[in-house]
Design a protein that fits this description.
By secondary structure, this protein is α+β, with helices and mostly antiparallel strands. It is built from 22 helices and 9 strands. The chain starts with 8 loop residues before the first strand and ends with a helix.
């Protein structure tokens, strides 16, 4: 008779489980499994918990905020049945090249005496239900090709097989994706991913890194990023995108700066374009400072005295310069959410001046300078939330930025600067289910390449199926709903900490 499945719960590591944890350690025979049970890295001695169990637990808990050498930040849980530790599972909050290809975003291990009793399946089920996991949109989980038990665990929790890849001299790895948004348009999503994984996508990037809207590889990658599916984007197309950016773009904005022989519109970049590119690349695990070493200084160079930027070269020549909130938001996000170390003093000033620009405008007021007076006509549109945003602006995007700026920079955020926006959103979405109110990308023109290879303009850009599927006016957007939920939680946190007054 099969042993009864234990009832388990996931708990953070604690010293009260020392005896059970150490008894489980004795059940593992191989050094690799002992190392996986300790979960502090291959170089960590297996007797670490024996020497000082309290210090061991503290280090394990600290990995949520500070990565150990060779590891990434992760949250570790122990599976508890009664008072026995029967398993270990961890959610990785960051990725690197190894994890994106081989390791995945979730790792788990079951105590030998509790195997084949459903522990791994239940651990994974509970982890996938947690808010910090669901915020990822989807997770990559891998297992050895011959590990049928682990494959069953993944498939029982909704894992969809993607590919089988080599792992050096070790067994090949099976890669599975688990979609955490039931509202994801699965077929259209997979179609976009297949396209990005094709030679056609590389050829299209060879033609241009940006055009045409909205069907080029760049726009499809940016859409998946906004859907929180950045990790689903094939790494090969991301690297090809980087190589093409390096080859095509010049590190200038003003036409007079562009070298002779280079196209001032197609080879130069603008704040909203570069801001979104840098933020996307950072999220995809690219070292932006190595790939585009000129990008970060570029943002600082083109910031206006009022803290904003503009994609209109003439706006820099007006008196005073006329910034655009649309052109400002993406560069600010790019610097704030970069994947590098501490900000430089110049970057801190850039972020603080930019945040002050948004705060003075209460997240929803257009430019007061006459040169950009037409921006004031967009104020009512900014109150209508849109998805995807691409380079467009709405008040939830602005709100999310200033909240995270306040938290990261430990800077005060005046309640009066965000109150009108918060009140408007609470009134429109009392149940927290945010509906799409605007398609900002409609009616936008594009450049496209004709059969003879020449680039020409047309009045309205084309669309691809996934774009249409995720942007239907009046429908609840799981992506906007989650962002609004995160914003409300951040407001409550900053109020408790005294940063919002």
């Amino acid at each position: 008779m099969a042993e009864k499945k234990p009832t388990i719960r996931l708990e953070r590591p604690h010293i009260r489980y020392q005896a059970s944890y150490m008894a489980a350690m004795d059940e593992f025979e191989s050094s690799s499994e002992k190392s996986g049970w300790v979960y502090l890295g291959d170089r960590e001695p297996h007797d670490t918990p024996v020497k000082d169990f309290g210090a061991f637990v503290a280090r394990l808990l600290a990995t949520e905020f500070e990565a150990l050498p060779g590891f990434v930040k992760n949250t570790c849980y122990w599976a508890i049945a009664g008072e026995e530790v029967v398993g270990r599972i961890a959610l990785r909050h960051e990725t690197n090249d190894f994890l994106r290809k081989i390791g995945g975003q979730v790792g788990y291990l079951v105590r030998p005496s509790f195997r084949n009793r459903g522990v791994a399946t239940e651990m994974l089920r509970q982890l996938l239900q947690m808010e910090q996991t669901r915020e990822k949109g989807s997770v990559l989980i891998t297992c050895d090709e011959n590990n049928t038990a682990s494959e069953r665990t993944i498939r029982k929790n909704g894992g969809v097989f993607e590919s089988l890849i080599e792992n050096g001299s070790k067994p090949r790895k099976k890669r599975f994706w688990i979609d955490l948004y039931p509202d994801h348009p699965a077929h259209a999503t997979e179609d976009s991913i297949r396209y990005l994984n094709s030679e056609s996508a590389k050829a299209d990037l060879n033609a241009d890194v940006y055009w045409p809207k909205w069907t080029a590889p760049w726009w499809q990658m940016l859409l998946l990023h906004e859907m929180r599916l950045t990790d689903r984007i094939p790494p090969e197309v991301v690297q090809h995108f980087v190589s093409r950016l390096r080859a095509q773009l010049v590190p200038y904005f003003f036409a007079a700066e562009v070298p002779e022989g280079r196209h001032p519109q197609m080879d130069a970049t603008c704040p909203c374009q570069l801001g979104n590119v840098v933020r996307f690349l950072s999220a995809a695990g690219v070292d932006v400072d190595q790939a585009l070493p000129w990008a970060r200084p570029w943002f600082l160079r083109y910031q206006m005295p009022d803290g904003g930027l503009s994609c209109d070269e003439e706006a820099y020549r007006s008196s005073p310069p006329a910034s655009s909130i649309v052109a400002t938001i993406a560069p600010l996000e790019a610097v704030l959410f970069s994947n590098r170390g501490p900000f430089t003093p110049a970057e801190e000033q850039f972020l603080d001046r930019g945040a002050d620009c948004l705060i003075r405008r209460k997240l929803m007021l257009g430019c007061s300078v006459e040169h950009n007076a037409e921006e004031r006509l967009d104020e009512s549109d900014w109150l209508k939330l849109c998805f995807p945003r691409f380079y467009f602006y709405d008040v939830l995007r602005g709100l999310s930025f200033v909240l995270q700026w306040s938290e990261k920079r430990r800077m005060a955020l005046p309640l009066g600067a965000i109150q009108d926006v918060v009140n408007a959103l609470e009134k429109k979405f009392p149940d927290g289910r945010v509906r799409i109110e605007r398609l900002a990308y409609e009616g936008v023109g594009t450049r496209f390449q004709s059969p003879d290879g020449k680039w020409t303009k047309k009045s309205e850009a084309d669309f691809h199926p996934l774009l249409r599927e995720v942007s239907k006016i009046g429908e609840v957007s799981p992506y906007l709903s989650l962002q609004w939920k995160e914003a409300k939680a951040k407001i409550a946190q900053l109020e408790r900490e005294g940063w919002i007054k």
